[in-house]
Amino acid sequence: MPKQSSIKSALPALDRSLHILDQIVRSQGPLRYNELRERLSGIQDSSLSRILKALETYGYLHRDAELGYSITAKLRDWSPYLSEKKPDLATLAIKEIDQLAELAQESAAVVLLHDNCLRTQCSRTINEGIQVLGAGERLHFEADHAAAVAVLSALPAAQRKACLQSSYSRFPAKYSFNKIQNEMQQLSGVYIDRSQARPGICRVAKFFEHEQQVGAIFYCLTVDAFHSKSDRLISALSEAAMRLSGSTASPQNSSSSS
């Protein structure tokens, strides 16, 4: 455990760091060094310079030679969590899809379950990438689609059965859901398929639950492209699903058969 003396010595620096950020946020614009020094009465130049340098190094402040110090996007990203109004799922989903598509340069989408039917909440098809469903389009419960199987795997057995018996199901007449699930599910918790309708194409999906809404976020790409960057894609997809869930907890999948 840290010594009491080290904790006490760190508190003034922490307090001043927060005070600096508070002043810049409230000013709604950049503040120059001299302006900050005036607002922080009693602080020494050496201490102020050291704290500003640390905040800049850790990505909380940006320094412009003429305008002074301003907060970065890293700090602005806190605003939805600090305000009373949190961003809705539609806003979060678009943000995550854009980030995933830009990161991997592969097409991506989010599907949500409504009345035992999967619909595309948002999607992004990368230029020269694999075409994915557009917003509002239905995704049938298909035995070879990772996103559909990921959502079905997380549902209670009774609801899963209802989905599989609905008019939106494209599962074959005879099937073992557990077998299909086990073939797709990876140790990382993502689901990976091989498209039967489009040979050479695969989907990599992860289930999420946002409040009472369940769905899946997934990539759609060639099998070769997936193998060339699988670790990066799985990591990015898992992190996106956790942010959509608003939790770092892993969803619990039901193992009951249908």
Q: Could you characterize what this model shows?
A:
With 258 residues, this protein is of the alpha+beta class. The chain has 2 domains: 73 residues, Winged helix-like DNA-binding domain superfamily/Winged helix DNA-binding domain (Arc Repressor Mutant, subunit A); 159 residues, GAF domain (Beta-Lactamase, 2-Layer Sandwich). The protein has 11 helices and 8 strands. The strands form 2 sheets. A 6-stranded antiparallel beta sheet has the order 5-4-3-8-7-6. Strands 1-2 form a two-stranded antiparallel sheet. Helix 1 packs across helix 3. It is elongated. The N and C termini lie far apart (52 Å).
Structure, briefly:
This protein has 258 residues and is an alpha+beta fold. The chain is built from eleven helices and eight strands.
What is the molecular shape?
elongated
Assign the CATH architecture of the largest domain: 2-Layer Sandwich
What CATH calls the topology of the largest domain is Beta-Lactamase
| Helical coverage, percent range | 40-55%
Q: Number of domains in the coordinates? A: 2
Strand order of the largest sheet: 5-4-3-8-7-6
Distance linking N and C termini: 52 Å
Cα radius of gyration in angstroms = 24 Å
Query: Strand content of the residues, in percent?
Result: 15-25%
Listing every helix as H and every strand as E from the N terminus to the C terminus, the arrangement reads: HHHEEHHHEEEHHHEEEHH
Number of helices: 11
Helix/strand/pairing class, anyone?
alpha+beta
Largest sheet: 6 strands, antiparallel
Number of strands: 8
Calculate the mean pLDDT score and round it: 85
CATH class of the largest domain: Alpha Beta
CATH H-tier superfamily of the largest domain: GAF domain
